[in-house]
Amino acid sequence: MAEQQAHPGQQQATLVAPPPGTVVDIFKEVLSDIELTPYQTAGDVAIVVQREDLPRVMKTAKEHPRLALDYLRCLSGVDTYKELEVVYHLYSFRHKHSVQVKASCSYDEPHMPTVSHLWQTANWHERETKELFGIIFDGHPDLRPLLTEEGLGYYILRKSHPLAEIEEWQEDYLKLAAELEAKTKPAAAAAPAAPSEAEDRAAKVALAQKKAAAIKKARDEARAKGLSTEEEKAFVQQALRAVEEEEAKRAPVAASAAAAPTPTEDRAAKVALAQKKAAAIKKARDEARAKGLSMEEEKAFVQQALKALEAEAGPPPAPSAQAQAPAAAAAPAPPMDRAAKIALAQKKATVIKKARDEARARGMSSEEERRFVAEALKKFAAEQG
Amino acid sequence: MIADNPWVDALVRLGVLAIAMPLIPLVLVYLERKVIGRIQMRLGPMRVGPHGTLQTVADTIKLLTKEDLRPRSADRWTFELAPFVVVVPTLVAFVALPFTGGFFIRNLALGLFFIVAVSGLSIVGFLMAGWGSDNKYALLGGARAAAQLISYEIPLVLAVLAVAMIGGSLNLEELVNQQGRVPFIIWQPLAFLIFTTAGLAEVYRNPFDIPVAESEVVGGPFIEYSGIRWSMFQLAEYATTLLIAVLASLIFLGGWNWPLGNEAGAWLQIIWIVLKTSFFVLFFFWARASLPRLRVDQLMAFCWQVLLPFAFLQVIINGLVLVYGWPDLLLGVFSGLATIAAAYLTYRSARQAVEPYSPRYQTVRSIS
Amino acid sequence: MATELPPPVEHELETIDLNINVGPQHPATHGVFRMILTVDGELVVDADPVIGYMHRGGEKLSENCDYRQAIGYQDRTDYLAQFNTEWTYMLAVEKVGGIEVPERAEYIRVILGELNRISSHFMFAGAFGTDIGLFGTPFMYSFRERERIQDLFEEVTGERMMYNYFRPGGVAWDIPDGFKDKVRDVLKEAQQGIDDLDGLMTENEVFLARCRGLNPVSPEEAINWGFSGPMLRATGVKHDLRRAEPYSIYDRFDFDIPVGTSGDVYDRYLVRLEEMRQSARIVEQALEQIPDEGPIMAPGIKRVLRLPHGEVYARTETPRGEYGIYLISRGGEGPYRLKIRSPCFCNLSALRNMAVGNYMADAIIILGSIDIVLCEVDR
Which residues, 6 or more positions from C241, have their beta carbon under 8 angstroms from its beta carbon? Predict the structure, then answer.
């Protein structure tokens, strides 16, 4: 099997052929016309078959006297990132040999033939696999969910279903991706079929995981270097940008996903700027108080410090790698003079403050509050021209 | 006689009964928990009061202060009257039960008949509880209870009838007086065994507690009751236990009469009665701790196919002896033989119905 | 007092089958388990088990952890035989990683695993006796012995349950001094407890009348339904993973395997009772053979273990049957896929076949004889 360096955790090892003299030989003899791919696991021998051959293989496995695999030990589903797999563990009481049989199906068409007519124990196993992975077993008498409630709406053990750690990230991405998809593909929005979304989700999940890993690494590095909080944030942002650029280079289709982090990035940049300003203001205020200035003089002093800061920071950092930037500041604004910039910034600050207070009075969650504030800012920017 | 006026006398006696009756479960429940605890290698209640003697008092207070629940869809009158219908007949049966020569409420000429007849009324209460609770478990439990209690009435009545035949009277005091020399257990061992077994079933205790152990332990017809009403069912259960025990010691073991005779002091007689009753009560507790419960069909089969024929056999033996005027010794001999035959046949059928049980598993060394 | 069923009665009356919910809250169902029985009078016409009340997503959670963190989830599946389930998981990890466990650790594992089997079967005897109707006497007898064994476990691991003691490559820390003598004392008491239970239940006529001949299962049926453990051995199939596919050091011990004949409820009880005695035998031999000192952990095992790519289906014989772990590793710090094959799940899936046609009270007894642990069924 070829190795694909697609996402972390997706690599599959090269498969080792089983030694001679195992049950695989009997399989090959008895089912000589079927394509079998055997390999050796750390325990039993495994055989990969095609889904179309599966009913015949299973029937032969159970009924052929030389195989006599009359005991189905375990039936599990596996979500490799490429497809859904079902693994059958069989054992023979007569010959005392055991074997694994694997068959796979795609996300788009998750159907598998049932074996519950051969081994009754497969009845509940297949029910469980159906509800956890979404694999539909054709011919099964009763595919009600076993362990979870009916109508759950998602398949828990698929890799696209969030693990606990990165859930927040994932929710954002998934929602944005769904919105974008709905905008760009209105026709395909009908079927809520999990399989077709799963691939996108898997990609998004992988991306999210990569970003999380990069952030972690960058943060650790920054801490090891002993940077201050703002510098650490900038460092992390840099690392994130590097990851995005890499992604954009590799898969231009993923640009939509890359566009998604823009709000977050913008926000992060703005937050950094605001924090810098706050620090400057604080410093200036302390200085002024130490000097014993009056209220007016203190205000003027603080504004001067702010101006100095603006001069230092230069123009606000531009968001990177925007192929299709959503409705942000589309047209490049004419170069404003400093005072106008400061006035604008102050007006924005009042708008933000008002929006924030309103959101808090309404009792929104922090996510909604952020969105509300962003909207207010957008409105303000539109008003400005 | 406590007072000259028969009405006042009756009232006083009834008053004594009314006070003593609810105290009986207190003592019996405590005893049961202690005895069963000891059989199970543990101590039983130990904390509330010295050696746990006040445990049942605490339990009673708890039960009395519990909320009186009634399911909304329960049939109101049936549901609420059922505990009374179960308890009152048992208490009424105590009216005719003499504890010693002078220690009774009314010495009815038909005493034995009265007791058996009245205590049979409780069955209606079970049906009422089962139906009125609007609960499938209760319904099943009530149906099972009715079936069991009605079925086991018959061997009980036949055993009592056998004793009445021998004693020649239904008056309990007279029956006891007739046992001055030899208690009836010597003449009627088969009736004794049948009475004890049927009595155990009448009180729905192990191994016959399938109505109350509906799907094991959920409580059968009592499932929806709480607080006082439930404790009334418990009162009925333990009062009936005491009734059966006292009755058995009166008609089989010679009551207060044997072996001391009627002239012994009242206190001595009471002590004797208490001892004999405790023998039965302890036997009931012992059976509860050691025997699993029979399934309903096994229960019914046991009653109709085992107890009833032997009860008839005992009655027939009695009849033959009485009609032909054979000496009492023959009565004892025949009854003894019948008892041995009954015990053997029961034992054999119990073993046979389930093939020889000698270890039916093998231990193997290797798998091949 | 035969346990054979009478022929079904033809009613002239029109009767309706009653739907009884042996609900999730029920004293007799050994956990949160729901069974929807359709009864015709007293005969069970249909039994539909509903599980999933204890589903906590252990498999998904294990994918999120690394290999050491996932040990805790194995504790919480079969909470009566935790050392055995941990052991299976360790086997899987060690097979994929090619890790060899040192001798002393193997012996410790065997001693603790077999003691756990004894205590689990004690629990079965107690609960089963209560189902049958003994008013708590077998429960009291068996819990005395269980408490002693749990005291031992507490000495070794610090916990009465949820031991989290096995590690990939060995065990977490060494057993305390004087442990061997304590185990010997406990074994003596346990033998006495087994004899007590034996005397109380095995030849009890009412017990026999209830259980003998109830729900016999043929070997072919049992294999088809996926039975394992005492349920399978009671039907006559001579299959014990400790002998058929020996793992760890079980080939060094001399023990017998009880096998029943008819697969009915009584045989299952007998098989489990005898297994307790055999486990005591194994523990005694292990106590003699255990090396007095030695490493208890394979060398070079890091805390955050990274296994090479690979997959394995590791299985051991737990008190309930064949507990299997299908582990797929893709080189990460934790499992890529961890599928738990729980014996109670497979045994319970046949409940419908077993309960239909019996009386309602017998359905409860059959459920009790499967000896289910709901946390394992639902994972």
Answer: C247, C315, C316, C317, C322
Q: Is the pLDDT of residue B255 over 80?
A: no
CB C39 within 8 A of CB C355: no
Q: At what angle do helices B228-251 and B76-93 cross, to 10 degrees?
A: 30
Task: Tell me whether residues C203 and B357 touch, CB distance under 8 A.
Answer: yes
For chain A, give every domain's residue range. Answer: 23-138, 336-385
Inter-residue contact A90 to A98 (CB < 8 Å): yes
Fold adopted by A23-138? Beta Polymerase; domain 2 (3.30.460)
Query: Nearest CB to C378: which of A8, A78, A147?
Result: A147
Residue A87 and residue A102 in contact, taking contact as beta carbons nearer than 8 Å: yes
Domain ranges of chain C: 66-350
Kindly report the nearest CA distance between residue B78 and chain C, in angstroms: 22
- Which of C137, C204, C212 is the closest to B289 by Cβ? C137
Contact status, residue A231 vs residue A224, Cβ threshold 8 Å: no
Number of H helices, E strands in chain C: 15, 9
In whole angstroms, what is the distance from residue C351 CA to residue B356 CA?
28
Q: Which residues of C touch A46 (CB under 8 A)?
A: 311
Which residues, in sequence order, are CB contacts of A65 under 8 Å at separation 6+?
none
Whose CA is closest to B77, among B22, B21, B129? Answer: B129
Do C225 and A121 lie within an 8 Å CB cutoff?
yes
pLDDT at residue C141 greater than cutoff 60: yes
What is the rounded distance in angstroms from the CA atom of residue B187 to the CA atom of residue B112?
Answer: 19
- pLDDT tens digits, one per residue of C191-200: 999 998 888 8
Q: Does any CB of chain A come closer than 8 Å to the CB of residue C64?
A: yes
**Distance between C316 CA and the closest CA of chain A, angstroms:** 12
Say which residue the tokens 């023959």 belong to. Answer: B330
Touching C: A residues 6-25, CB under 8 Å: 8-13
**Sorting pLDDT into bands at 50, 70 and 90, what band is C6?**
low
Q: What is C66-350's CATH number?
A: 1.10.645.10
C63 and A44 within 8 Å at the Cβ level: the answer is no
C49 vs A contacts (CB less than 8 Å):
none
Q: What is the pTM of this model?
A: 0.74
